[in-house]
Amino acid sequence: MSLIANPAAAAATAVQAQPAAPPALSSAQTRAVPAAAPVEKAPAVKVEPLVDPDQMRANLEAVIEKLNEQVERNGRGLNFAIDEKLNRPIITVRNTATGEVVRTIPNEVVIKVAHNIEDIKGLLMDHKL
After folding, report:
1. Which of 92, 32, 31 is nearest to 67 (CA)?
2. In what order do the strands lie in the sheet with 88-94?
3. Is-contact 77 93, C-beta < 8 A?
4. Dist. CA 10–CA 97, nearest whole Å
5. How far apart are CA 69 and CA 106, in angstroms?
6. Which of 79, 94, 87, 86 is nearest to 116 (CA)?
7. What are the helix (H) ranges across the chain?
8. Which residues does residue 103 pair with via DSSP β-bridges, in sequence order?
9. Cis amide leading into 106 (omega within 30)
10. Beta-carbon count within 10 A of 39 CB
11. Confidence class of residue 34 from pLDDT cuts 50, 70 and 90?
């Protein structure tokens, strides 16, 4: 059994309950969109690094020195260093009997190419990247 006694009255009520659609605009009646207000730029905030680069480098050099001492005590022919120009680690493998360099990581050719690229950067730009 239905709660609504008159179905036609219920349909008319449902149509009235729907919101009316906005009238369609012709191309001549387009609505103007208000211009957005200009946005003010926030002042630049200078962020201080949490780590001091000089202190970090000193810590790294101390760790490398300890690592080299440990490797030497174990009789291994490894040497760890930081390339000053590239600021990258360089590992040298030596023959302990002859002292001859067996291998350099990264390869010597790669190091030379990287040095040349660093030199070219100075020619192309006024500041260090």
Report:
1. 92
2. 78-83, 88-94, 101-105
3. yes
4. 103
5. 21
6. 86
7. 7-17, 53-73, 108-124
8. 93
9. yes
10. 6
11. low
Report which of residues 38 and 111 the model is more confident about. 111
For CA atoms 65, 67, 68, 70, the dihedral sign is positive
Q: Which of 76, 70, 67 is nearest to 96 (CA)?
A: 76
- Provide the CA 60 distance to its chain's centre, in angstroms: 23
Q: Tokens standing for 89?
A: 């680690």
Give the model confidence (pLDDT) of 59-109 as tens digits: 888 988 888 888 777 777 888 888 888 888 888 888 877 888 888 888 889
What residues contact residue 58 under an 8 Å CB cut-off, 6+ apart?
none
- The answer to whether residues 104 and 91 touch, using CB atoms and an 8 Å cutoff, is yes
DSSP 115: H
Which residue type, as a one-letter code, is found at position 110? V
Are residues 96 and 76 in contact, defined by beta-carbon separation less than 8 angstroms?
A: yes
Residues 6+ apart with CB under 8 A from 69: none
Whole-prediction pTM: 0.46
Count of residues making up the chain: 129
